[in-house]
Amino acid sequence: MFTKIKTTYREYPNAFKVLTLATFIDMLGSFLLYPFYALYVTEHFGVGMTQVGFLFSIFSAGNIFGGILGGALADKYGRRAMVLIGLVVSGTGSIFLGLVNDLRVFYILAGFLGLVGNFGGPARQAMVADLLPKEKQAEGFGILRVSFNLSATIGPILGGFLATKSYMLLFIADAVSSLITAVIVYMVIPETKPQKQDDKPEETVMKTIIGYKHVLKDWVFVLFLSVSAITVLVYMQMNSTLSVFLRDVHGFPAQSFGFLLSMNALMVVLFQFWITRKISKYAPMKIMAFGTLFLMIGFGMYGFISEPYLFFIAMAIITIGEMIVFPTGQSAAASFAPEDKRGRYMAVYGFQWMIPNLFGVLAAGLIMDSIGPNWVWYLAGILSLFSMIGFWLIHGVTKERLSKEKKPKKGELLEFSVPSIE
């Protein structure tokens, strides 16, 4: 087993290994803080969940515009610079958030951090596509998900301990993790942006931003994002609506819900890489349709079950689905993108998460209050079915474009080189 792990480890360039470590450190700080954001805001400012929801909407709106700018600038100036800017700004900004005593100033600062702090998001995803050959990209994104979920397993435990001492320690810890990550990126990871072809003129910043119209004209890519956004709209209920539903309808305590989420994260840590390697050879849209089937079953179950042990079974089914769907989706998005527009494609890909975050929790709350709590999960199953059918139909128009093997033109030899990062 250890020989296999060692062999697998050697398959990836050093820069990708360091990027994975940096992601773990950065997200560890995020998971120290974010699970306690609502508690801090309500306690520190003496407000209710409406103000907290407004805060998250501001932050999500900032993320959308920050991703747009960051993706364009990553294609113009390089991935490394955008990642560094995002890390430094979000790190120092966390300290200021912990010092602010005026809610209006807190809102403004949160919007700014959502904007500039997300500059590095599309760049980081573009780095994975830059560093790895196409046949390794799904595995690469899967490895990053393992790193992400390992942070999600450890972070809240450490954050809970620090929160009992002082909320300010959470902001400091988040800042320290971001700044440590920035130092690692600056010292170790080289620029990965593909070299500009000599026959192509240099783009201005404005022309780079305007270049988003080429992404949005890619109707197949936009269709793929639209179907993916439906899946995200369902999946995001796991970290928002589900806890309230289980508490209010079934008397499921918050501590038990914490174990439910920990099981989810631990499953990803243990099985993500193995699952991604097994499915990476198949057509991505078919695989995403297959994975969405698990999401449909898992989320739909919550509308019919009431025994606590079944809550854990439903979560395990959901986790299998997310391990199949989301790394495959990231790899597919990178495969859609031309090299010189990869940052912008990954930025637009991020919309499938950001836009549902603007209204998804609010819509679920309205359904729970006006129609009935179980209807959230009935509709989640129905939407997942639509998404599953959508992925299957999209396969017909993407199978050649997303082929893992590049077909050479007539009279041309196929040549492929892996970036050397030694």
Summarize the topology.
Layout: H1 2-10, H2 14-33, H3 37-45, H4 49-77, H5 79-99, H6 103-117, H7 120-131, H8 134-165, H9 167-188, H10 205-210, H11 212-217, H12 219-235, H13 241-250, H14 254-279, H15 284-301, H16 308-336, H17 342-349, H18 351-370, H19 374-398
Helix pairs in contact: 2-8, 2-9, 4-5, 4-6, 4-7, 4-17, 4-18, 5-6, 5-7, 5-9, 7-17, 8-9, 8-14, 8-16, 12-18, 12-19, 14-16, 15-16, 15-19, 16-17
What's the rounded overall pLDDT mean?
A: 80
Structural class: mainly alpha
Shape: globular
How many strands? 0
Query: How many H/I helical runs?
Result: 19
Question: In summary, what is this structure?
Answer:
The protein is mostly helical and 422 residues long.
Observed structural traits:
mainly alpha; Growth Hormone, Chain: A
Describe this structure in words.
Helix 4 crosses helix 7 and helix 5 (79-99) runs antiparallel to helix 6 (103-117). The chain folds into two domains: 13-194 and 205-210, MFS general substrate transporter like domains (Growth Hormone, Chain: A); 211-403, Growth Hormone, Chain: A. The radius of gyration is 21 Å and the shape is globular. The protein has 422 residues and is mainly alpha-helical. Helix content is 79%, strand content 0%.
